[in-house]
Every structure is written in C-alpha cells, then in structure tokens.
Design goal:
about 0% strand, 2 domains, 7 helices, mainly alpha, elongated
C-alpha cells in the first residue's frame, strides 16, 4: 500500500464467490483509492428513492467513478444459473419418466388382475380377506420396485457424487443417505396409488362372477 495500516478486526470466513470455488482472502478497507464496491441494505419498498439517494452521495464522494448498482439476489442467481437449468431439466425428465412408469404399471396390474380372476374368486370363497387379496396382488410389484431401487441407488449415488465434486463446499452423501430412503418410499407410494384402485376393485369383485369368467 505504501503506508502502514492498522488491523482493527477480523471477521469469520464467508464466501465472496460461488460454492464451486471456496474461500478467498478478502481485505476490507476504508482507503478510498481501493473502493470498488459497497454493499448497502435498503428497504425494497422504497428502492427507487434509496438508489437515487445513494447515487447522489456516491457522485459527491467519488466523482471519478461511475455509479452502477446491482441487487444481491440477482448476482447470486447468476452464480447458479447452470444448476437451476439442470434442475428444471431433471424435474421435467423425472416427471415424464414417472408418468410413463405409472401408466405401464397400471396396464400391468390390469393384465395380472384379469389373468388371476379365478384365483382371486377361489381365495375369497376359501375365506381370504380383502387385505389378503390386496397383499397377494401388490407384493410382486413392491418387490419389483425394491429391485429397481437396488439398481438405481448405486447409479444415483455415483452421479450425485460426481456432480458434487465440482463444489469446494459440499454436503456429505453418507450423512444424507435419507434422500435415497425417501426416494424409495416415494416410489412405493406412487406404485400403491397407481395400482391401489385396480387391486381393491379386483379384491371386492363378486367371487361367483369371477368363477364364471372365461
């Protein structure tokens, strides 16, 4: 600097750039020749008046610098533009995949129910309850979802871990394993909602009609 300076305080570490880059050394000084930016908290209900007031005083204090401004939330949003774009794409693809999966699952349970109509009728005559029939028709689908989850989890783990490597500050996947458990529970819920109506309908069917069907 060419002159002595007195350190008057040290603050806790904070990010000045994106979480991709981690912490950087920052010097907070009151030497006007090093002024480039100032952070000011304003009332957004009176943002126009506040900006005009700041511009006026800025020109008085630093007439050699142009007064420009930007809102913090806009700057932060530019840091993670790619992440938001990827999030929207993933949500769109996941929604399409879930929709196709539910339609396929509904068609499969309708086919299985039709194939096992007589079996369901015989079981009801022999004393099977509604819960027994629902369990009988649903357990195979739940097992298939479990197998699909065992296949999907390692792939999802690898993909998420690879993506997180791009961040200096990131979460720990082992500490957030509940995300995968939540996804598995959600898959089962979607499956039960999809097949539930058809399964209950088959379980409530008159066993006499079931035995007469060809």
């Amino acid at each position: 600097m060419g002159s002595d300076a007195t350190i008057v305080g040290v603050v806790k570490d904070f990010n000045t750039l994106t979480l991709h880059e981690g912490m950087h050394p920052v010097l907070l000084t009151r030497f006007s020749q090093f002024f480039q930016k100032a952070s000011v908290k304003i009332d957004m209900n009176q943002s126009t008046q506040a900006i005009q007031h700041l511009g006026k005083h800025w020109k008085e204090a630093f007439p050699e610098y142009y007064f420009t401004y930007a809102f913090l939330d806009d700057q932060l949003s530019t840091f993670y533009k790619e992440e938001r774009k990827m999030s929207r794409l993933l949500v769109a693809f996941a929604s399409v995949a879930i929709g196709i999966g539910c339609v396929g699952l509904l068609g499969l349970i309708m086919f299985v129910s039709a194939q096992r109509t007589k079996e369901v009728g015989i079981r009801k005559i022999l004393g099977a309850t509604l819960a027994n029939i629902v369990t009988l028709l649903s357990k195979e689908f739940i097992a298939l979802i479990g197998v699909a989850g065992l296949i999907a989890w390692p792939i999802a783990w690898y993909a998420m871990d690879h993506w997180l490597q791009g961040f200096v500050n990131r979460i720990s996947l082992p500490a957030n394993f509940w995300i995968f458990i939540f996804a598995a529970v959600l898959s089962v819920v979607f499956a039960l909602l999809t097949v539930g109506f058809q399964v209950i309908r088959a379980a409530l069917a008159n066993p006499t009609d079931s035995l007469r069907s060809e």
